[in-house]
Amino acid sequence: MALKFLQVGKLLSKSFQNLRINPTPSSLLSQNHQINTIFARNYPGFFTKLPADHLWKAVTSVSNAGRKRGRAKGLMRKKNLNRGQIIGVGKANIQWPGLSAPIIRGRELVHRQTLPPDPEHEAKIIKLRESASGKRFNRLTPLERGWSGSKMPGRSIGPPDPIGEDAFEGFDTRVIELKTVVNMKGNMGRKRRLSCFVVTGNGKGLAGFATGKAVESKNVLRKAKNRAGQKLMFIDICDGHGIYHDFFCQFGKTKIFVYKKPEGYGLVCHRAIKTICEVVGIKDLYAKCEGSPTVQHVVKAFFLGLLSQKPYAKTAEAKGLHLVKYSKETGFFPKVVASPTRCRTEKEIRENEIIDYSIFAMDGKLPLKRKKFPMFYESSYGYQVYLKKLEKRRNHFTIKENMLVEHGEMKSFLTDKYPECKPGRLPKREPEDQES
């Protein structure tokens, strides 16, 4: 930039090609007054001749060789410096009539005035720029995050969109898989899209799963959950917390062995199966997966197993027999859980008919469990001596536990007749003095 001070005569004699001046009144030119005028010329420079994209490229780009070596991970993101900027609002908090304030307020004419400074003005603009650049992420609570960090699999994306007047109240949709798929075309080349696999349910037995594909992440999530809401199926839950019986299910090369557990056991299974159980409403279950760990195969196999369950009422009606339950928690006391409309007699039951409910539910099959081999020390002489010494007191702990449950204390069958027939108790230790 060049600055020059010239007289009026020299100024008028100059060509007006590179000069821009305001016309001067003749009264000033007639007098011998010297007018100081500032002349400025704007030369094109690096910051004026290039657009903003070229300037940002200097700090946000990396070579192809550097990108292959992983140097593009910590680069600065492009920021929109115009974000948050409002005409008339700046560092100096000034009220401009017609720009940042009305010209007339009621019947009063608004004048320009300086307002008290706003110390948070710059902080707000910086926060807007950082959030727009995508550098900082909102911290998620442990209940909101997915299976690993802030990735989508395992996260909730809300209920499906309502269809007309029908709304999905109480439904929750979980993402099972979100990946990028590529389709190669002869004329279009590689076409990249996102594929999303979700499961939705209301926690009361209604559930469904579906796959959606789209170019943008918002569209693929919306499409997948709406499709899942249109493919609902009903799953019967036993006693409101678990499954009816053990079952085996398979899809492709994926095999799943599912076992019924008592209330309060929890969900000990694959993370995809756990997510499905939370959506369906199952609270207690144990599952073991074998074969291919493909997530979509795991979900499809587990749904096939849930739908193939045989509820108590339908089983009793199909067999024409009473269904009786024996459990360790109730001391193996028989409990009738379902009865048919007409019970068959003993003569009508065939000799080779399956009576065991667990075997009947597995279609006459049982899982082949791996044989447990003896430990290396069980054949030693010392372990045999240990077993001989343990022989006389091998059931002491079980008997003591049963007595405490039934009677509330340790006692013998002669205690009622002879009250002194009780196990001795150690006297309570008195607190020792501080000096001793």
UniProtKB/TrEMBL annotation:
GO biological process, alphabetically ordered: translation
Biased composition (Basic and acidic residues): 417-436
Keywords: Mitochondrion, Ribonucleoprotein, Ribosomal protein
GO molecular function terms attached to this record: RNA binding; structural constituent of ribosome
Glycosyltransferase listed as a keyword: no
Subcellular locations according to the entry: Mitochondrion
InterPro entries membership: Ribosomal_Su5_D2-typ_SF (IPR020568), Ribosomal_uS5 (IPR000851), Ribosomal_uS5_C (IPR005324), Ribosomal_uS5_N (IPR013810), Ribosomal_uS5m_N (IPR048584), Ribsml_uS5_D2-typ_fold_subgr (IPR014721)
Entry keyword annotation includes Ribonucleoprotein: yes
Boundaries of every S5 DRBM domain copy: 171-235
Sequence segments annotated as region (Disordered): 143-162, 416-436
GO terms for cellular component: mitochondrial inner membrane; mitochondrial small ribosomal subunit
Family note: Belongs to the universal ribosomal protein uS5 family.
Subunit field text: Component of the mitochondrial ribosome small subunit (28S) which comprises a 12S rRNA and about 30 distinct proteins.
Name listed for the protein in its UniProt record: Small ribosomal subunit protein uS5m
Organism: Clunio marinus
Lineage of the organism: Eukaryota, Metazoa, Ecdysozoa, Arthropoda, Hexapoda
